[in-house]
């Protein structure tokens, strides 16, 4: 009898427990009112570009390839192999049309989108929701380094618009929605969460993307990523072609500064130090006597530039600037870029393990000049004659001619002529043609000097940090010494 009563009682208790858990669940957000309010401020952007016949086909494939074309990727690769890296020229002019998204940020018709949406366009048109007639828009300004552009439609005074929110307060897991025109499907709404922040995807020097699983597809570029308060926290700009639910948006905090300058009719001005930098791995931190890998390692200092005037040296580790800690090289680039040219600010460094504070007056970053300098870099290859092998590296003093080819003011350091297969040096990305300038921050000009540092300071720390000249650039590579005590 007791068993008969207990069974239904247990079932009832289990049901009540399940019902209680179900009632306690956080409900999905109701975004209908938010979509009704935000939707009219999102626009369809169409562009027209006059190109030659071969350009038409190639540019189409490039757009899909770079921004996520899925199955088109394989076809593009074969197309490029067949036609070569240029694949342009000849043919009759054609009109190429493309679509993207954007959103209104003021009642008088200013519109934000991606630079790649309107890049090289002869004509830009904007279509508002529930309006069948597109309106011509002029390009107010654009910034290639952050992939942002500002448009303006004239004759408007009462447009619905969206405001920027604070992306720095956005938390991973927060609900966000994207509105745009994927594949030309006007005013499509998708809902998801913030999957991650601070993503670096190789799109530019200031990568700091918000990752979201709200569905983003070709055509969404330039559209807003909106929080549940109706504020724009990101500008949708990139996707992973082979993935699902992996989209990226430019944080609003980065975008606001750029858009404000463009709206004032100015070109975007960014601070400039005049150094080359790299991240710090565990072996490099060990060689530098650091407790962690936080900071940006200065690989070279450009003559006459702000960093040189402030006394920075190759091998310094920048740990803070303008009151903010520096975690890595990308973080330093972003922070310096937010500061104004001509602004004087303090930097905290680690120099041979000791903290140093310096004051630096920033210059102005010149993106075009940087691109030209990168394009002018050239290497030099030499044979293995008269080389001495140490830790898997064949080394010999560099000649004056070789030094000149590498942009060096004089012959100094050791040329690496060979790197042993499978050695720790090879695995640490040390290459033939590199020139070793310093070992553990000590200058070396002969193989004997190199070996002395390895046998003393190197074995003590278990690693050697090589300052290397590679194709007119200075970098650091750290090689572990496995048999050291």
UniProtKB/TrEMBL annotation:
Alphabetical keyword list: Hydrolase, Periplasm, Protease, Repeat, Serine protease, Signal, Stress response
E.C. code: 3.4.21.107
Active site: 116, 147, 221
UniProt-listed InterPro entries: PDZ (IPR001478), PDZ_sf (IPR036034), Pept_S1C_Do (IPR011782), Peptidase_S1_PA (IPR009003), Peptidase_S1C (IPR001940)
Pfam families reported in the protein's UniProt record: PDZ, PDZ_2, Trypsin_2
UniProt-listed NCBIfam families: degP_htrA_DO (TIGR02037)
Record's protein name: Probable periplasmic serine endoprotease DegP-like
Organism of this sequence: Solidesulfovibrio fructosivorans JJ]
């Amino acid at each position: 009898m007791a068993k008969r009563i207990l069974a239904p009682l247990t079932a009832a208790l289990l049901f009540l427990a399940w019902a209680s858990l179900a009632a306690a669940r956080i409900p999905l957000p109701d975004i209908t009112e938010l979509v009704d309010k935000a939707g009219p401020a999102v626009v369809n952007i169409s562009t027209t570009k006059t190109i030659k016949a071969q350009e038409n086909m190639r540019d189409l494939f490039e757009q899909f390839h770079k921004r996520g074309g899925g199955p088109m990727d394989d076809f593009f690769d074969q197309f490029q192999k067949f036609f070569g890296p240029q694949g342009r020229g000849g043919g009759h002019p054609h009109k190429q049309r493309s679509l993207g998204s954007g959103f209104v940020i003021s009642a008088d018709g200013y519109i934000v989108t991606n630079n790649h949406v309107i890049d090289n366009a002869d004509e830009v048109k904007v279509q508002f929701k529930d309006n069948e007639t597109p309106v011509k828009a002029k390009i107010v300004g654009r910034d290639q380094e952050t992939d942002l552009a500002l448009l303006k439609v004239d004759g408007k005074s009462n447009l619905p618009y969206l405001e920027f929110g604070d992306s720095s307060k956005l938390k991973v897991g927060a609900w966000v929605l994207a509105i745009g025109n994927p594949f030309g499907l006007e005013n499509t709404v998708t809902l998801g969460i913030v999957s991650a922040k601070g993503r670096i995807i190789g799109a530019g020097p200031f990568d700091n993307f918000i990752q979201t699983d709200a569905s983003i597809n070709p055509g969404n570029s330039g559209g807003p990523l909106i929080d549940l308060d109706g504020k724009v926290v990101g500008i949708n700009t990139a996707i992973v072609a082979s993935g699902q639910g992996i989209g990226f948006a430019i944080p609003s905090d980065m975008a606001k500064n750029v858009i404000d300058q463009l709206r004032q009719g100015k070109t975007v001005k960014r601070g400039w130090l005049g150094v080359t930098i790299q991240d710090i791995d565990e072996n490099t931190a060990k060689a530098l006597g650091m407790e962690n890998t936080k900071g940006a390692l200065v690989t070279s200092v450009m003559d006459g530039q702000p960093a040189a005037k402030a006394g920075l040296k190759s091998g310094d580790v920048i740990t803070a600037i303008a009151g903010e800690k520096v975690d890595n090289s990308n973080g330093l680039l972003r922070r310096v870029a937010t500061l104004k040219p001509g602004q004087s600010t303090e930097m905290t460094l680690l120099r041979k393990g000791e903290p140093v504070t310096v004051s630096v007056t920033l210059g102005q970053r010149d993106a075009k000049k940087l691109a030209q300098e990168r394009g002018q870099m050239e290497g030099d290859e030499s044979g293995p004659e008269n080389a001495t092998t140490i830790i898997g590296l064949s080394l010999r003093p560099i000649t004056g001619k070789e030094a000149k080819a590498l942009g060096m003011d004089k012959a100094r350091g050791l040329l690496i002529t060979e790197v042993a297969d499978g050695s720790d040096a090879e695995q640490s990305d040390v290459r033939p043609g590199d020139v070793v300038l310093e070992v553990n921050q000590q200058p070396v000009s002969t193989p004997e000097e190199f070996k002395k540092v390895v046998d003393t300071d190197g074995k003590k720390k278990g690693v050697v940090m090589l300052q290397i000249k590679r194709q007119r650039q200075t970098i650091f590579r750290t090689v572990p010494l496995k048999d050291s005590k």
